Amino acid sequence: MSRRLPFARLAACALLAASAAQAQPTTSLAQLLAALPEPPATPEQAASWVDGQGKPAHAGLLAQRQAMEAHKAAANRLLAGDAEAARTQTGYRTEALGQGMADIGIDMQRMQSDPAYAAQVQERLRRMTPAEQMALAQRMNAPMQQDRRITNEARSMAEDSPAATAATAAYEAGQAYSQAGAFTERRNREARLWQDAEAAVARVNARRLDPGLPKPRMAYDNIGCEAGCRAQWQAYADRMLPLMVARETEVLKLRTAALRKQRAWLAAELAPVDRHLAATAFGAGSTSRVHREQIVAYDVSAVGEIQALHDRLAETVRQAAVVVRCGKQAVLVPGAVCTP
C-alpha cells in the first residue's frame, strides 16, 4: 500500500490540475477589451447594429458579450469547485472535532442538544487551571492536526506560488486603494466625462432645425389631415429627416469621443491587473483556496468594468439608430413610433 500511495496522490493532483485547466478563463482582460467593436461612424451604420426591437444585433458586439459571459462562467466554475471543497473540509473538521471532544470525555452532540450537560462541561472547564485548559485543547485538537484529509489553509497560503501571492497582494492593495477614495474618484471622473458629453449633446439637440418649410399646423395623425395636409407633411419630412440624421451624426461623434476616452482609461487600469491574473491562470494556478477566491474576485470585478463600457456602447448605438430606423415616421408621428 505504501508504494501505491504516492501514485494515487500524483493521479489526484493530475485530475485537479486538469479540472482547473478546464475551469479557468481562456481570454485575457486585454483580449476582452480589444474585442469591443469601434462605435459606428454614422446613424445609418448604427441602424445596422440593432434588430427590429432596437436590441443589439451586431456580430462583433454579440461575440464580445458572449466572450465576457464565458469568461465569468469559467471564473465561477473555479469558485464552485472551491465551494464544494470547502463543504468537504467542513465535514472533515466537524468529524475530527467530534473525535477530539470524545477523546477528552465530551459528547459534542449532547453539548448541542442538552443545555444542562453543556453547563456542566462549561463549569468543568472553568475550574481548570490555564495549563490544564491548554493541555486539554491540545488533546482535543490532535485528531484535526493528524487528519491528512484536512487542508491547512494557512500553510497553503504561505506555500502558494509567487505569482498567486503577488496577485493576491495586488488585489488587497487595490481594495485598500479603493477604500481610500480612489474608486470614488475614478467613478467621479467617468461621471464628469459623460456629464460633459451629454451637456454637449443637449446643446446640439437644442439647436433649431430649419427645413425651409413651415411645419403643418394640423397633426399628421389627426383624422382631419387629408390629402393636402398629408402632402404638406411629406414635403416637410423630406426636408427635415436629413437634418435630423445630420444632428444624430453630430451627437454620435460626441458620445464616441467619450467612449474612446473611457476605453483608453480602462485599458491603462487593466494592464497591471491582466498581468497578475494571467500569471496565475486566472486563479487556477493558485494552491490556496483563500488566494484563489481573491484572485477570481479581482478578475470578475475587472470584467465588470469592461461590461459597463460594452453596455454604454450598446446604448449609444441604440439611441443613434432611432431616427434612421424610423425614417419619416420620426417626423410625422415621433411620439407614437420613435420614442427612444
Automatic annotation (TrEMBL):
Keywords per UniProt: Signal
The residue range of the signal peptide is 1-23
Indicate what this protein is called per its UniProt record.
Lysozyme inhibitor LprI N-terminal domain-containing protein
Instruction: Look up and give the organism this protein is from.
Output: Pelomonas caseinilytica
